[in-house]
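> @MW can you paste both from yesterday?
MW: sure, first one:
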Amino acid sequence: MNTLRRLLKGVPVSVLGIVAVLACPAMASDLGQAAADQVSEANYIDLMDNWLYTHVGDDRGYGPEHDLAMDNIALLMESYGLSVALEPFSYSSSTYYNVVGTKTGTVWPDQEFVIGAHYDSVSNPGADDDASGVALMLEVARIVCQYDSDYTIRFAAFDREEQGLVGSNAYVDAHISDDILGMLQADMVAYDPSTDHARVYGSTESNPIKTSLLAAIAEYGDGLTASDYGWISASNHAPFDYAGFQACLLIEGEVWSNPFYHTQQDSFEQVGNLNFPYAVKMTRSAIGWLVDQAGVQVAPLFIDLPDALPWRLDPDVATSITVQIRDGGESYSPGSGTVHYRFDGGTFLTTPLTPLGGDLYEAVLPGADCGSTGEFYFSAAGDGGGTLYEPEDAPGSLYTAMVAALVVADDFEGDQGWTVEDIEVTSGSWDRGAPAGDGSRNDPTTDFDGSGQCYLTGNDIGNADVDGGPTRLISPTINLGQTSDAILRYAGWFSCDDDLPPAEDFMDVELSNDGGDSWTLVHSVASTEGWFEEALHIGDYVALTPNVKIRFSVTDNPNNSITEAAIDAFFVVDFSCDEIQCAVRGDLSGDTAVNGSDIGAFVECFLDGDPGTASCVCADIDGSGVFDADDVSSFVTCLLESACP
């Protein structure tokens, strides 16, 4: 493709006119219009005012604001979801950086479009020249990064433009082998004394891209007019053109009569300098052009799920889910939001979403029988006839949740009776708390579920990983004697930088059904990347009894590796929902006696427990279905007599 473009240099304009027609897709697409309609003047002003250092006294040439603006541009690009690189180049014995954000195409990732601006100035605030172009580029990035694009798009904030296009020349040299289909440079796009006119510059060899941009301005510019002013070499499109790429410059119509050009008055505060409605029209034109050229697939709507979806539903209890519906290429059609659900593979039923205010809605899944599996998805319609599903390919893909009774839930914010056993451990014992590490040794920096705390090994900064071992984290006794299908679910973290046998270390997950006298190995977890979730049916490994325990063991032996582990979001659920009974009232430890081992669990159940769960049913001494003062006095009596009367 690049070879073809270089060969076209010098071809007669009459022939290039034919190429231009062939190169320009049909304009005025609904997708281009939908993207242009999302350009926000408030967002554009915020970029200029709060991010790009355009105020009186700022200096993006060689002052401190130069690097601050560079950092902000990179930060914003990352927040939009772009892959960001600071690409270095040398100038005058110093190193400078182009900030490049990449959005990879889904159909033709090796072919790309570039939209650029320069963030340096002539030692002034440079509000129009060229923070205005950077703001245009960032606003375009904010919008298009919500969607897939057929082609790769690079957003390039060039440096040292004012010293002779140094940054863009360096960029072209570094990317000369890229298959660049088109480059649009936005340079000075906010000064306009009410003319609503723009200039487009480019060589005759770049007539195809100029033609498509002029058409986009006419279609998406909201009244903006533009003309082709031929060739100019004074901006960052020029190195691309010289290298044989299609490239053009979009610039304000009154650039040559701008009284603030290259002066200290080119600031955010200067009256008459920045015409924000005009800049919005320029931005609308650029994004409409990019959407049509790069095949940006603008969705009609967005369906987001602000909170984690439930993986478990309480039996016979309705479950509420919050859904967010945002406008995209279309506006939401009120009343169209729907949750589709079924249980155990039956026919899908539907319930409309209930407005909660703003763009939030409530979806309700009805109560269902224990032991069933729910499947669900969401849909919403736009006012232009488009419909969006979540998951995107529903009902091909669905969200699922089991209907099961809760036996144990532990986010480790409180002490529910876990114990730690260390054998020849010199450091890195299990500990409960908020992660203290910084991730430098591949230890977790946050817990899994966001509650704050978890169990983790060696919870200290620096060299605090497991040495020797094993260190064992052992659960309290769990009464599963009344269930026929209990499921363990937990979040884990395990990292070991020596993952090759024979010295490979693991985190062993073990089960006991006799209170810890014997153990069955369930899983040896090898080194993973970050947090993972696992679920298993306990009855597949041990018989279900009132004396079940779970153990997590970590060893670094031989002591030759950095070994880190963590556990969070620990659940045991009853998928059979058999009627829970208590063999010995007051016996919460499962040893068939009422003694000191039951006190801690009784207090936990009384303060924050459910008499219907297997772990707390024996704390409801009188079987009334509620915890009250009668249960406390009865439990004391049980303790004194070692059994309940």
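MW: second:
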Amino acid sequence: MKRAFLLITLSWTSFALFGQSLENVDPANWLQWDCSPFQVTISGANTHFQQGSATSVWFSQGSNLVFASEVQTPSETQALAIFFGDFDACGLYDLHLTNPVDGPLVLPNAFDVICPDLLASVPTGASFGEVFEVTISGQGVNFETGSNTVWFTQGSNVISAANPTGLSQTELSAIVGIFDPQQCGSYDLVVDNGCGLQIGLEDALDISCDGILTGKVYFDANGNGNFDGNDTPYPHAQVRINPGSIYVGTNQSGDYSIQLPDGNYTVEVLPPSGFGVSSFPNAYAVSLGQQGYSPGLNFGLSASGGNFSDVGVSIIGTPAVAGLASQYWVAVYNHGSQTVSGALQFDIGSAGLTLLPGTVDPIALSTSGGVILWEYVDLLPGGSRLFKVQAVVPGDADPGDVLLSTALVEPIAGDDFPADNMVEYEQLVTGALVSAYKEVAPIGDGIDHLTDISSPLTYTVSFYNTAGQFPYEVLITDPLDPALDPASFQLLASSAPVEYNVIDGQLEVKFTYPFLPPISVGGLSSFGFATFAVEPISGLPVGTVVSNQAAISIDGGLSMSTNTVFNTLVDTLIAVTDPPVPDWQVVVSPNPFTDELRFAVQGAEEDLLFRLRVFDATGRQLRELSGQPAVFSVNTGRLPAGLYYYRLETEDGRAATAGKLLKN
């Protein structure tokens, strides 16, 4: 027994100490850029991987040790090891495997960790205002995996790129937009693999800002003409540049910038109503071509006749389709010179809309009977706030129906211009959801959309993200009708921060990184909008038709055109009014009419003399009749089909009524 035991022991000892080796590891290299777990297969000769317990595997490079997180032994000569890529250094590593049976085994220089590097970035130059695709090439990388982030850096200035996309293992594309004139000069490129590893390329991009005019518009609280102390940026202020009547608006930070050809320019701010320019000079003379880049063209605004209060409100909605939900934004804006706080009331019940629970943003003070009540605090001069809600359009609504909702913003007491504290939103029901849509307020009366010639027109352009990814830029292009005055342009609200300019009568509103998800996943959160007001030019003839259509481009792709809206400008003399004498009743028949119309006033004194006037849709008077008693028969056989207006009044000017007529 002793001899047998001794023989077994000697045989085992001899078997365990001689002939074992590590022969191979597959794969034999790994990209440091890859941060996902990976597996290697280790092959051995004369090994006993399955018999040994507590097998350990690791790589070593000097004192740098990287251990496998898991080891499996499917056979005596094969082991599988999983690593998490914790290789701090590149280069060759020794492979180690140990267990109680085989002991420690080593395969020198078995594994190569390859360091990543950036080789090139194209293009190498760009100009202010450009949006372009950059293509980055590297070696020792795998851009098709992981979550890559791209940016350019110049000290504290950082330009983040959007939509990084792996074109291949060694090529990466991203979208870059240059919108800040402070971003001029040379930039280094940085790419991050999402696991804490970064690689760079020095002097990868040079940004030119030749021909840039830039500055800031601010509310000058103390009126000293300097941006200091309690002064605040004034967003959506309008700066005019001549010659050419070029208009550019300030962003949320009160900054504006525009790139122009070489030449001599005058730069001035157009103060909003109730404001004046407090800074000096109140206009700048600039010679581009000599200066190249002209920063610091700043303007201070202060109340011209003492502080005043003026808050207003507007309502914006996505296209309304029967039975479907629509997104509504209510914008509160401060046109006054004082910081204000108050309440906002939005009534959707009057339009027959049904609130979708959980969609009120921000959280309301109360929701009851279709009325939503919010609070707003510390709204600065020139500032605005957005409130959002979703509601379902009545299922029995027909295309062409008008849904009427209202909004009221307080405080009203002390508001110097309370007329804009309340708004009625006339929302036309459409037959289908459209990707680009335009509305105008007021819609106007009748099929010709008759509108007071002195009334400002408020346009809303809404759109949804038709791209398959988050867009980096949405551009609205809107050729303003020649009857509109670009100097009166006022951006009221937008779903995300925008920059705008008007050049040669064409409006451009640019959203940069608006964070709109694709419609396929975002639903109503994929919608964006911009709302602006503009006034007709003074002295237009009655009957002028003002039409407007916009186009929306996402990431520089194919433009989507909106529908066309129009208004016919008419004199207020033919506006519908309430009868001043409640005992009178005017009967008009038939209406719609064909060849003859009859008017009769009931309840009036028999000796009263009445006058009837009939107008076409442009405000041109077509008929005038007088009579006693007040019964008129009007032959209309020669009038073409369409919309008409009438006004019935006494000879001493007391109105019986006014209204609309429709001829078939």
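> thanks! The first strand starts at residue 21 and ends at 26.
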